[in-house]
Amino acid sequence: MAAPQAFSDADARPAEPLLAAQLLSDEELDELLDDICGVDLGKRRRDGVNVLSTGVKSLDDALDGGLEDGRVVSGSFEPGGGGNELCQTLLVNSLLKYDNSTAAVIDTTGNFDILRLYSLILTHLQRNPTVLSSFQPINATSDSEVKVDDVAARVLDRVKIMRVFDFVGVSEAVSEIRDVLEGRIAVEAKQESIPTEAEKPPAVEIPPRRTFVADSEDEEDDEMLFDSEATVPEPEPEPECAPAPALEEPRLELPQKTTSEHHLEEQGPGHGKEGSGKVKFILIDNLAQVLNPLLKRDYIQANALASTFLQSLAHLTSIHKLHTMLINPTTKLHEPSPTRHAPQNPGQAPPPQQNTQQPPQSPSIFASSTAIPSLMNVLGRYVDVGLLVTKMPKSRLDARVFYSDSGGGQGNRAGVKKRGVKMVSVMEVMSDRWAGRVGAWGTFIESSTGIDGIS
Known about the structure:
Elements: H1 26-37, E1 51-52, H2 57-62, E2 67-68, E3 71-77, H3 82-97, E4 102-107, H4 114-127, H5 129-133, H6 148-156, E5 159-163, H7 167-181, H8 184-192, H9 219-231, H10 259-267, E6 279-285, H11 288-297, H12 299-319, E7 323-332, E8 371-373, H13 376-379, E9 385-393, H14 396-402, E10 423-432, E11 441-447, E12 450-452
Parallel strand pairs: 3-7, 3-9, 4-5, 4-6, 6-7
Antiparallel strand pairs: 1-2, 7-8, 9-10, 10-11, 11-12
Helix pairs in contact: 3-4, 4-6, 11-12
């Protein structure tokens, strides 16, 4: 029997590590993601989902065709930047896509530009003759022309602006939208319109006339008494003053239904066009305006209020298949200034190091971006899609000029505008709960007619 061969330490090889990626194939990983997260990587668009596009190819490609209904989307950008144009473009596309639907704008700043919205509606109708012809009345003849201004005014009438001043007002506005969608306001208005028996005015009681005089024996005095009572006129009832009308807050009212729409409602659901007469698009501009003061006062209580509100808003959006847009302003990331210490004596111990709080990092995929969303820690748990819109130089030459060092050693990280540099707006997906579009980005420019692609 041969002796076992001895192996030296030089012949021994360490075991190769077995990675988890080697145990599962790509097909098995896709099936697991589809089963657990409900995401179909091969076919992201599911049946029964309406997609709202922007009209710009670069942005629609980054969004895989557009934004789905039933999703809460946050748009983070600088006030007055290209993000406002993007949000208003989505609002206009929603009004033109869903016939007879309405859009609710909850304005907390009072800076919503209604004239700009009307201009965008007018431009979209002029660019799409097919959409314009769809607004022609059924009984109109072929020779009659549809005026673009009249159609744009009718579309603008379907936008309901709700001006609020605090977080309570935002919550009440969303509750009012919920009542409209669930038909509670319509039922209450119908009950109030039922005629009731008119209340009769209270009758004026006339005191009884005296027909005798107690303890009197003089007939002349009796006659004088009766004559004086007969000449006294009866008091006339004073007219009741109508109560002053109570001041009520503006309510979100549904547009008046025509006879055909009433007939469609009697037939039941499934008939007619989707979103007819109901809110389909919600734009909140902006939530940080009313929530930041509460967070500074009591962060825990304000965070609890915001969580309850956002959870209710997400449920409302999902149940009624709405397009909900939350405008969230951004702030610039400032470089921390170097700390200066007083000169030390030869025998003095160095001062203790202080633990400085690290500034938050920008969620952008671009290293040059310094934009930080205001409510990033609050909205992240309840928002389905998070968009970030920033300004970037258009070409390589513009980038060299824009980011050139001006003597401070940090370059132009503050985003100071420089003369002669062409800038474009960049939209990037910084978070996506369902479709896996994180990191996708597209570019656009703002013009007098809206947003356009870069040629």
